[in-house]
Structure prediction request, 262 residues.
Amino acid sequence: MTTQVLNDLSVEIDGDGEALLCIHGLGGSSNAWTPVLPALGGFRRIRPDLPGSARSPLPADGKALSIERYVDAMVSLLSVLDIGKVHVMAHSMGTIVAQHLALRRPGTVRSLALFGPLAAPSDAARPSIAARAHAARGGAAAMQEIADAIVKGATSAQTKELQPAVLALVRESVMRQSPEGYAQSCAALADAQPAALERLDVPTLLVTGDQDGVAPPASVRVMQERIAGSRLVVLDGCGHWTTFEQPQRCTQELEAFYAALH
Prediction:
């Protein structure tokens, strides 16, 4: 496993085969994908920490983060790696980035595997996400409170009862974000606009949990209806942190999805 710094992004690149770009969500990192690596052995895996997240600093130009800037960063990363075509896997906020990337660069994205997928935050959710951005600027103590709230609200009852290590991993992932980077990431998500889903014309897998309050099955089903030929999988006993909470099931679904492409 090799970490490189490319365009000021910390990126893990390993494996051989077709390129697979893995885009984490809010409060995540390249480690969002570690639990499902067994399903990805046939790919050249490219796992960046998004600008302002985990080990990647905020952009040096001082301009605020946005979904568009995340897409710009992914386009630039693919360019510097000289990648013409790529499969894309994404989680949560990263799924919005992935959808916009596929539409901005038609012919570049070969497939989409989207976990806890969102078209955009609901109008009801936007104010609370914006409020979280403000709270995050309170520093380390505030980030701890946010992390604890996410562990409580975004994992399933079964995960809370049976998988304490997953709770610790989610908490650590959020607590290790820089307060300003996380705040700007929240603001970017709060302002996110939906992509034109009907225009997506690549094989698409949608995976969510039956207890995912961020990407509830009913909302993801609407996405499935709008994306021609897409497949929806709802995991039992799973919240929003799909690859952490149900890694074996996610691995199985990915293996089946990628096998069907060849």
User: Anything to note?
Assistant: Residues 2-121+194-261 form a domain with the Rossmann fold fold (CATH 3.40.50.1820). The CA atoms of residues 3 and 9 lie 10 Å apart. The chain has one domain: 2-121+194-261. The chain has a mean pLDDT of 97.
